[in-house]
Design a protein that fits this description.
Largest sheet: none
CATH topology of the largest domain: Vanadium-containing Chloroperoxidase, domain 1
Number of strands: 0
Order of helices and strands: HHHHHHHHHHHHHH
Shape: globular
Number of domains: 2
Strand content: under 5%
Oligomer: single chain
Structural class: mainly alpha
């Protein structure tokens, strides 16, 4: 699997960033022409679309609440931990991609200061599932960025060679990303454009992480078994954190995350002991 990932990731070009940057530019121009650079106008031009999507998606509250948890970096990355053993090159790119996503997300939130739906809209006009967010950090959606950052790396790293399978794989990964991102609208935590822009930034972060890792392989040591005790400790700590989440909120997604951490910790421990 690692050889396949290396081969696929080496094919990524800087030109892959052109389309997402063009989309961001198009959205910026659209907002400018609509006079929506201010927070109030940004919210008002998509109020109806947000309300409609929120009311439709919130008909499945349990699904929306579980899906939105995948936007938590701890949860989604926990599900990828086995790749440290079988495809460490993917994790090298994931680390860089995650760092890029963090660097892009925080300044955008600080710069635009867009209020969350619950902070500016009548709470009786839409559905809030779970915690009500009322801060001024709605744009972009951090969950959408995280999801598309991870899925973009996986999309290209595990891309099949067969054309038909490629189409299915791309449709599957993009579909999963869109569904998870839209769950942020479904739970009433973000405006529609927040998740669209966040998804695009996540894709840019994923591609950037792959390209950076090709030139700066400072994470290559993660494939060395002598560092496995470090991951055993790290995954044990993550397991405790996820277990705490699970005890406070009995959701299936946390069980999946915890199971993944347990399995990977077991595999790494066995491999290290054999060494």
């Amino acid at each position: 699997m690692n050889e396949t990932a290396i081969s696929n990731l080496n094919k990524i070009k800087y030109s892959y960033l052109f389309l997402p940057l063009l989309l961001l530019g198009t959205i910026a121009v659209f907002l400018f022409t609509c006079g929506a650079w201010s927070a109030d106008h940004y919210v008002s031009i998509q109020k109806e679309a947000f309300t409609y999507c929120n009311l439709q998606l919130s008909k499945f509250p349990a699904l929306m609440y579980n899906l939105t948890q995948f936007g938590d970096a701890l949860v989604i990355l926990s599900l990828c931990t086995a790749l440290i053993v079988y495809a460490p090159r993917i994790w090298e790119s994931l680390i860089w991609a995650s760092l890029v996503s963090a660097l892009l997300c925080c300044p955008f939130k600080w710069l635009f200061k867009i209020p969350r739906p619950a902070a500016i809209l009548d709470n009786g006009s839409f559905v809030i599932i779970g915690k009500a967010y009322v801060g001024n950090n709605s744009l972009p959606s951090g969950h959408a960025i995280t999801v598309f950052t991870v899925l973009t790396v996986l999309l290209w790293a595990l891309m099949p060679k067969n054309t038909a399978r490629k189409i299915i794989w791309i449709a599957l990964m993009v579909g999963i990303g869109v569904l998870i991102s839209l769950s942020r609208v479904g739970v009433g935590a973000h405006h529609l454009l927040d998740v669209v822009i966040g998804s695009i930034i996540g894709y840019i972060s994923g591609i950037s992480g792959i390209l950076i890792n090709r030139n700066f392989t400072m994470w290559a040591w993660i494939s060395d078994k002598k560092y496995h005790p470090l991951f055993i400790i790290l995954f044990s700590i993550c397991s405790v954190i996820v277990l705490r989440k699970m005890l406070l909120d009995h959701q299936p997604v946390f069980y999946l995350s915890l199971l993944s951490l347990f399995i990977t910790t077991y595999i790494i421990t066995v491999n290290y002991v054999k060494k």
